[in-house]
Design a protein that fits this description.
Blueprint lengths: L1 E2 H7 L4 E5 L5 E2 L1 E3 L9 E4 L12 H6 L2 E6 L10 E5 L2 H15 L3 E6 L4 H12 L5 E3 L9 H7 L7 E5 L8 H8 L3 E4 L13 H9 L10 E5 L5 H10 L4 E6 L6 E10 L2 E8 L2 E7 L4 H18 L17 E7 L2 E8 L5 H17 L5 E6 L8 H15 L3 E5 L1 H5 L9 E4 L2 H7 L9 E5 L7 H5 L2
Helix pairs in contact: 3-5, 4-9, 7-8, 10-11
């Protein structure tokens, strides 16, 4: 991805001195010294808790041929290096260089839930039409986005970048760095609301993704979201004109016309756009993935004019709704692993999905294990109360409530069929006692609750 001279050019404003072999070819850029790579550049970021300069030896042993540093005190002898004023600023400088030299069509996406699943569907879609790069894993913050951009090859035809946020003013600088051709907002909900006064402030922050969008760029938003008008108005207020919508509402640019569920991991979808019908297969029956696939269709069609999609080989990301059957003490259990993270909209959508599967597959019970939602601040009790209301309204058969916040709202449940546990470890030790043959077992909770431990115990 980079030759020696390109690194010098990209970092010109930051460089104090350097010692590089002339024939170096860098194929990876990393900030974690534990990453095993070949021909890599290690950037020694100085953080609040860790100093990358303490791990230069480790980085070298794991395949890094060049280190980007702001302090030479711990530099291993004989290692190629670039000494700069600030390694964090240099990370951004290299990311900017990567973006400016690229002719790829760039897609940026944000949203309260579903970002990673949409990113993976987009990657699957665009890979069939050209060389496609997508940010890895959950690299969506002020470190992850520039690092991902640094790792996009010069000959990529499409680039897909996920942008996350916890606080205000985080999305705009990342979008301006990416300069997307397409900006997607999957949805808006009360996620990380601890740091905002209300959902409208969250919606406004999500709309900041449009600040980096090219003037002729395409915006894609959810017409069914309560904050649709705010997002639409923000888009037009910025002088942007190419707005595309998706959703269940027939007025959407791309709307869901029909859904046929074959089994837990197979469905056929029909989407409508300007009077034209698009029919395709999806290796999932989860409603959120259905709409995620429509986002992928809308993005492909809007950006390239192509409309042929097929997600029959799409693999659900672990912890984000992956469904599989498991024999537990001679009992057949259908497990839906949605344990990676949680929010009000994603939990309610998950509970509704379980009921849909229960009816379509003639299952007898839905058992749910729901962990605390974190980063909700003073609104935590009220928002967790909404989960209790949903459990009551949907008549969930048995509930396992994990964590302090979920335990607090247990008195609101109208059925006695529930148990409370302080953490996922204690719940996991007892879970087998509550499962019966033929159950659907759904697991959900914030990342910090480690709800996957309950599944691991099975």
């Amino acid at each position: 991805m980079y030759y020696s001279q390109e690194l010098v050019t990209a970092l010109e404003s930051q460089i104090l001195e350097f010692d590089l072999d002339d024939n170096l070819e860098i194929k990876n850029v990393v900030i974690d010294s534990r990453t095993k790579v070949e021909n890599a550049l290690f950037i020694a970021i100085v953080g609040e808790n860790n100093d990358g300069h303490d791990y230069l030896e480790s980085a070298s042993k794991n395949g890094c041929e060049v280190v980007l540093i702001s302090n030479k005190d711990q530099l291993p002898q004989g290692l190629n290096y670039i000494l700069v004023k600030d390694t964090f600023e240099s990370l951004y400088a290299l990311a900017k260089f990567s973006r400016q030299r690229s002719s790829a069509k760039i897609i940026a996406l944000t949203g309260s839930v579903g970002k990673t699943s949409v990113k993976e569907l987009l990657k699957s879609t665009f890979s069939k039409y050209g060389k496609t790069f997508a940010s890895h894993g959950n690299l969506n913050n002020h470190f992850g986005v520039p690092l991902s951009l640094c790792n996009m090859a010069r000959d990529n035809e499409f680039g897909i970048f996920e942008i996350g946020m916890n606080h205000a003013n985080e999305i705009a600088p990342l979008s301006k760095l990416i300069e997307p051709d397409v900006a997607i907002i999957t949805n808006v909900g009360p996620v990380h609301i601890e740091f905002f006064n209300n959902e409208e402030e969250i919606a406004f922050e999500k709309s900041e993704i449009f600040l980096g969008l090219k003037k002729d760029g395409i915006g894609i938003i959810n017409i069914d979201n309560p904050h649709y008008k705010l997002l639409k108005n923000r888009f037009s207020d910025l002088g942007l004109t190419k707005l595309v919508t998706f959703g269940e509402n027939p007025a959407a640019s791309y709307s869901l016309s029909a859904l046929e569920i074959h089994n837990i991991n197979s469905s056929t979808i029909e989407a409508s756009h300007d009077g034209e019908k698009y029919s395709y297969n999806l290796a999932s029956s989860k409603k959120t993935n259905v709409f995620n696939s429509i986002i992928a269709l809308a993005t492909l069609n809007s950006l390239t004019g192509e409309g042929e999609v097929d997600f029959s080989d799409f693999n659900e990301v672990q912890g984000r709704g992956k469904a599989f059957e498991k024999d537990v003490n001679s009992k057949n259990i259908l497990i839906i692993d949605d344990s990676y993270n949680a929010s009000i909209p994603s939990i309610i959508a998950g509970l509704k999905y379980c009921l849909e599967i229960k009816n379509s597959l003639n299952k007898t019970r839905v058992v749910v294990a729901i962990g605390d939602m974190l980063e909700l601040g003073s609104k935590s009790e009220a928002l967790h109360g909404e989960i209790a209301n949903a459990i009551n309204k949907l008549n969930i058969d048995f509930s396992i409530l994990v964590g302090e916040e979920m335990t607090k709202i247990s008195h609101k449940l109208t059925k006695d069929s529930f148990k409370t546990y302080p953490n996922s470890a204690s719940a996991g030790k007892n879970i087998k006692n509550f499962l019966k043959d033929g159950d659907i077992f759904y697991v959900k909770g914030s990342r910090g609750m480690k709800m996957e431990e309950i599944i691991n115990n099975l």
